[in-house]
Write a structure and sequence with these properties.
About 80% of the residues lie in helices and about 0% in strands. With about 130 residues, the chain is mostly helical. The chain has one domain. Helix 2 crosses helix 4 and helix 3 runs antiparallel to helix 4. It has four helices and no strands.
């Protein structure tokens, strides 16, 4: 841990809640998508949880920063990709209107924004203190 690391209680609470919701998300995916897709989603949720935890504890070493320069774009691609798959092949895909799809994407963006910010700062912060 860096010398001036600071634990962020709000992010730690977000991380725990995100972890619990991730279990629900994966269970929901398992009931409607192939096993390979569900496994990739479960892996990405675990990576997102790990990044959130690292950020909330203020732990960023040079190797983690180097790794997160690769992980952050994967997290973003996962978010966009799962949104597209859900919109095209999800349980309510054919009954959803464009407006409802945009509203759901906006809500998802708001809910995932702290995670996106945390992952960005883990990879691209200029100093050791994130």
């Amino acid at each position: 841990m860096s010398t001036n690391a600071k634990i962020r209680p709000w992010m730690l609470a977000y991380t725990v809640i995100f972890g619990l919701f991730s279990i629900f998300f994966v269970q929901n995916d398992y009931s409607q998508y192939p096993l390979a897709y569900t496994a990739v989603c479960a892996l990405m949720y675990a990576v997102i949880f790990a990044g959130n935890l690292l950020y909330s504890l203020g732990y960023a070493t040079r190797p983690i920063q180097s790794l997160w320069k690769f992980v952050f774009p994967l997290v973003m691609l996962h978010f966009v990709g799962t949104g597209i798959v859900d919109a095209r092949f999800g349980r309510h895909a054919h009954s959803a209107t464009l407006v409802s799809s945009i509203i759901v994407w906006a809500i998802g963006l708001v809910l995932f924004f702290p995670a996106f910010r945390a992952h960005f700062l883990l990879g691209y912060s200029r100093d050791q203190r994130v």
